[in-house]
Design brief:
Length: 663
């Protein structure tokens, strides 16, 4: 078992509204939150933020929100929605963030299951979704919206413009007695109050409401703020989904404790531009974002002149050799340091500036395993990228990597104050400061998630390295065996495939089968650029995905993965024998991915059963006809004949041969 460094997390500041009041008193003029609106950044300091939350809390109370009531928060990252979270906590109510891109049925399930009484939403789109399911939500009494465009002619008997109700509240709070009563309500908040309810991604069924308490949430945030030395000088871009634990912890909880600043982008389409303008000091992104950024960089370099390409690839090779060692403070020859410094001037610093990474002191990735080569690429440029392993039930951090002790193949040792162990079957189990209280209205699932001595079962299979760092292999239920007994870890194989910029998503199968197969999605931006340079015309994703030359391109990537697997004793027998390229991208709206973009492998196997059968019966092609959801919500049917490709496998390479080659 492992335990992180110990520190007493107790104190008077045991709820987030208490932290809000503290910052307003201590650093009131420091920026707390920003929003880019119509191209202009607007900033609220901690005093402004306190007054805004106070007004919204009063408005909620006038709408009969009190202790234990549930308030849904639906929309993109906007100050008013973050204020709504804190305002609900101020009243000892429970905020329930809902994924903004959830279809109406998903939203109805969460709002109904959570017994939501009032919803705070961003705009007309979210209002329309809720109104379309209103018959299923008799307990929902009011909807407050942040953006009034398109809503002026609606029936406002239950609809309220947030700016208007806050203005009325500010006027009402001019009365000293009313203001004092509301202000005193902050002190009524207790550490054991439910602070928020976050719904899990639901990879294997209906999502569960994870109840997190105020005191535990604050304690967890305190530990990691201290671990990464965050202060009120830090700033980060809040672009992650509000309903995801990553946003609530890394943006909301950590910034509330550190006293730093959250910046909300103008839209999802402007995140990269806004990132460059803000220049955050702390940054988090799932592997998919880092993959996408690398793809864009490589596409741009392919279009650059010969000299620029040569300089780029020369210094990239240098960075791969020495960059991580320099970052970790290891001994590096003087000539290599000088050469790297020149590379920083000509390539690394300009590239980081283009990506918005120039001021970042600490960056994390999590959510899915990241390919070792991808991870090392960013670190070699001088980005202090680290990995963490977390779960909603832990209030995120289970493990994290300390500066100077970062490795690409692990997720680090136990986070501060976290106890970590492996069950006899290899399942990772933990106790953490932010550990969840319960699954809402589901005592059976709560009991099922805990061991007799109070550890949380993660459902993930892992191993400890010699130095105590944890390696996550896969979901324990997904780790299987081929018929010959060979270990089959699908996510491990999928992540190797997804390192290639041309591959966006991979779904591997093989448990209890004779061999491994994969279904792939191509990365349209990367493959489209390659097609343009090679004179290949196409009219749609489906058309280019089926092109023979694209299959040949992807087949070479699969063969490279097989060569890598052949060098790993445990995985050599799990090389990929057959693959296909799906005629559509996997989508959360079609149920193929979770809202946090995790593959629902079992669902995909059922949805594309004819393709699975074709991968294993020797067919050279298979037919599908499947329902798809378009961006405007309309349904349609996609019919296609999908080609299936065989791939050569490599003979396993023994460790003795590898040592001889290295020598």
């Amino acid at each position: 078992m492992q335990s992180g460094a110990s520190r007493d997390p107790e104190g008077a500041l045991d709820t987030f509204p208490k932290w809000l009041r503290h910052h307003a008193q201590v650093r009131g003029a420091r920026p707390a939150i920003r929003l880019k609106d119509r191209g202009i950044w607007r900033t609220w300091n901690w005093t402004d933020t306190h007054e805004s939350v106070r007004a919204l809390a009063h408005a909620l109370r006038t709408l009969s929100i009190g202790v234990g009531d549930k308030v849904a928060i639906v929309g993109a990252n906007r100050p008013a929605l973050y204020w709504g979270i804190t305002a609900a906590q101020w009243l000892r109510a429970v905020p329930v963030p809902v994924y903004a891109d959830a279809v109406a049925d998903e939203m109805a399930y969460v709002i109904e299951n959570a017994d939501v009484k009032i919803a705070l939403v961003q705009d007309q789109e979210q209002v329309d979704k809720i109104l379309s399911i209103a018959a299923r939500l008799p307990q929902l009494t009011h909807i407050l919206y942040d953006e009034e465009r398109g809503l002026r002619t609606y029936d406002h008997s239950r609809l309220h413009f947030i700016a208007e109700v806050m203005a009325k509240s500010r006027a009402a709070l001019a009365a000293p007695a009313m203001a004092r009563e509301l202000d005193d309500a902050i002190d009524d908040g207790r550490a054991d109050d439910p602070s928020i309810m976050l719904y899990t991604s639901g990879t294997t069924g209906r999502s569960k409401g994870v109840v997190l308490s105020a005191g535990r949430s604050v304690a967890a945030a305190r530990d990691t703020v201290e671990f990464d030395k965050l202060t009120d000088q830090d700033e980060q871009l809040a672009y992650l989904p509000l309903a995801w634990v990553g946003d609530h912890y890394l943006n909301y909880a950590q910034m509330f404790v550190a006293g730093g600043c959250m910046a909300c982008p103008e839209s999802a389409d402007t995140v990269q531009q806004d990132l460059r303008e803000i220049g955050p000091t702390f940054y988090f992104a799932p592997p998919r974002v880092f993959e996408s950024l690398l793809t864009r960089v490589m596409i741009r370099m392919e279009d650059a002149g010969a000299l620029k390409r040569a300089i780029f690839h020369h210094f990239l090779g240098l960075a791969r050799r020495w960059g991580e060692k320099i970052m970790d403070g290891k001994r590096v020859p003087l000539h290599a340091r000088l050469h790297y410094a020149l590379g920083a001037l000509l390539v690394y610093a300009p590239l980081k500036n283009v990506l918005g990474f120039s001021r970042i002191r600490t960056a994390y990735t999590a959510g899915e395993a990241i390919g070792q080569d991808l991870f090392s690429f960013y670190r070699s440029l001088g980005l202090n990228l680290k990995q963490l392993y977390g779960q909603t039930e832990a209030f995120l951090y289970v493990t994290c990597q300390a500066d100077g002790a970062v490795r690409a193949d692990t997720v680090g040792p136990a986070a501060p104050n976290v106890s970590l162990r492996l069950a006899p079957d290899g399942e990772v189990q933990f106790k953490s400061p932010g550990q969840f209280v319960e699954y809402y209205k589901d005592p059976a699932k709560t009991a099922e998630a805990l061991t007799d001595d109070g550890f949380v079962k993660t459902g993930d299979a892992g191993i400890f390295d010699e130095d105590g760092q944890l390696k996550i292999l896969d979901r324990a239920k997904d780790v299987g065996r081929l018929r010959d007994g060979t270990l089959f870890a699908p996510k491990y194989i999928e992540n190797k495939l997804k390192f290639f910029p041309n591959i966006k998503e991979a779904v591997a199968y093989g448990d209890s089968r004779d061999f491994v197969t994969v279904m792939l999605n191509i990365e349209l931006a990367s493959v489209g650029n390659w097609a343009e340079r090679n004179g290949i015309a196409y009219a749609s994703y489906q058309e280019i995905a089926a092109h023979p030359r694209v299959y040949a391109l992807i087949a070479e990537h699969v063969r490279e993965v097989n060569r890598a697997l052949a060098r790993e004793a445990q995985m050599a027998g799990a090389q990929i024998r057959r693959f296909l390229i799906l005629p559509k991208e996997l989508e959360a709206d079609d149920g193929e991915l979770t809202r946090t973009q995790k593959v629902r492998r079992g669902f995909i196997a059922e949805r594309y059963a004819t393709l699975c059968a074709g991968l294993y019966d020797g067919s050279s092609a298979a037919d599908i006809a499947t329902e798809v959801t378009y961006e405007d919500g309309r349904k349609g049917v996609l019919a296609a004949r999908v080609r299936i490709e065989d791939v050569d496998v490599d003979l396993p390479v023994s460790h003795e041969i590898l040592r001889e080659r290295a020598a």
